[in-house]
């Protein structure tokens, strides 16, 4: 298999190349350093990594709302049913998904056409279809979840702790963040500096158990 070199602006961060190691050592933690601080610059780099996730037709139907203000974070902790590790983490990132592909359709399908990957007629048809499509929560959840996993791995590879959470009041968080009607919170990520080790990881189901070749 040949590996394509990424364009220079997309080059992987040379300091953190060990993707497989990151996958295998990533943890969801509760032990955050309450005095730690993730800089906005680092947050931006992690979000940048998240945006390299695959998405249907490259529509990138996601947003990242980072709550860092202490009072706002307290409210988010309440909305997460009092999960205190979020407060210790210092940053709560709500990964938001678009339920309508229409939002980015014009820009993205125009890019496909400009790159010569589809015709202009195809692009126009796809844009019209996106405008006609019903809202689709699965579209939002699938795409935003992939971006969320990239986020977790990037944070971990950078020596930070990032814990995905769905134990929160979804409608309450949507109101609190003032999300547009066509967008939903998909996962909340507690992001912060580690406060120490986590309990040993619980076992994973084996490959023999989960892998089915050609049929279930
Ligand atoms: C969809 C989903 C929801 C989760 N919700 C929470 C949560 O509300 N609070 C929390 O502390 N951890 C939450 N977790 C983290 C899991 O408990 C954790 O991923 C699992 O125990 C495996 O541990 P590991 O990620 O350290 O390997 C969630 C994980 C996923 C994927």
Automatic annotation (TrEMBL):
Cofactor: FMN
Keyword terms: Flavoprotein, FMN, Oxidoreductase
InterPro entries assigned: Nitroreductase, Nitroreductase-like
Molecular-function annotations in GO: oxidoreductase activity
Stored Pfam families: Nitroreductase
Gene3D superfamilies found in the cross-reference section: NADH Oxidase
Keyword ATP-binding listed: no
Keyword Manganese belongs to the record: no
PANTHER family assigned to the protein according to its UniProt record, in alphabetical order: NAD(P)H NITROREDUCTASE YDGI-RELATED, NITROREDUCTASE
Name the UniProt record assigns to this protein: NADH oxidase
